[in-house]
UniProtKB/TrEMBL annotation:
Taxonomy of the source species: Eukaryota, Viridiplantae, Streptophyta, Embryophyta, Bryophyta
UniProt keyword annotation of NADP present: no
Shown stretch of the complete protein: 97 to 256 of 256
Organism of provenance: Ceratodon purpureus
Domain annotation Nucleoside diphosphate kinase-like: ranges: 12-149
Reaction(s) catalysed by this chain's protein: a 2'-deoxyribonucleoside 5'-diphosphate + ATP = a 2'-deoxyribonucleoside 5'-triphosphate + ADP; a ribonucleoside 5'-diphosphate + ATP = a ribonucleoside 5'-triphosphate + ADP
Residues binding ATP: 20, 68, 96, 102, 113, 123
Protein name from the UniProt record: Nucleoside diphosphate kinase
Length: 160
């Protein structure tokens, strides 16, 4: 066993974060990953991906009845995305705070959407809304062998 791989990963909270096609096209991938890395959350999955329509529809299945659902699916499949799996205590709610509210015009400056967007239909980034959905969405977007369990050596400098 490689020393840096955890043998028995505790089931800590995980969030599925995604740089949407507009964020990729605008060159914001590094900036967005950096914000979560700097905060102290652990990357456990990362890939670039061209989303099949069926996956976009499943991911946003809860919004099927919304008037904007068709446009939303078209937007998500309109170009490559970057899929990010993050781990850490409270990561779901904290990632949502770092991302900002759904409409970028209302999002606080300092949040990703507040700093980089002006329209709800182009809001740069996705973040899971509950720990249950975090696990569900990571299962949707990543194969099991794409999630990497590893020991983060800066942990003693992040956690008391
Ligand atoms: P989120 O959790 O903050 O991403 O927001 P929701 O789960 O409510 O909606 C999912 C995504 O649908 C949002 O991130 C937007 O990309 C899109 N969306 C939400 N509301 C609207 C809307 O009124 N119009 C359009 N065009 N897109 C919307
Ligand atoms: Mg949502």
């Amino acid at each position: 066993v490689v020393p840096s791989l955890r043998v028995n990963a505790a089931a800590t909270e995980r969030s599925y974060v995604m740089v949407k096609p507009d964020g990729v096209q605008r060159g914001l991938v590094g900036e967005i990953i950096t914000r979560f890395e700097r905060k102290g959350f652990q990357l456990v999955g990362l890939k670039m991906f061209q989303t099949p329509k069926s996956l976009a529809e499943e991911h946003y299945g809860e919004l099927k009845e919304k008037p904007f659902y068709g446009k939303l699916v078209d937007y998500i499949v309109s170009g490559p995305v970057v899929c990010i799996a993050l781990e850490g205590p409270g990561v779901v709610a904290s990632a949502r705070k770092l991302i900002g509210v759904t409409n970028p015009l209302n999002a606080e400056p300092g949040t990703i959407r507040g700093d980089f967007g002006i329209e709800v239909g182009r809001n740069v980034v996705h973040g899971s809304d509950s720990p249950e959905n975090g696990l569900r969405e990571i299962g949707l977007w990543f194969d099991q062998d794409e999630i990497v369990e590893w020991e983060q050596h800066m942990t003693p400098w992040l956690k008391e």
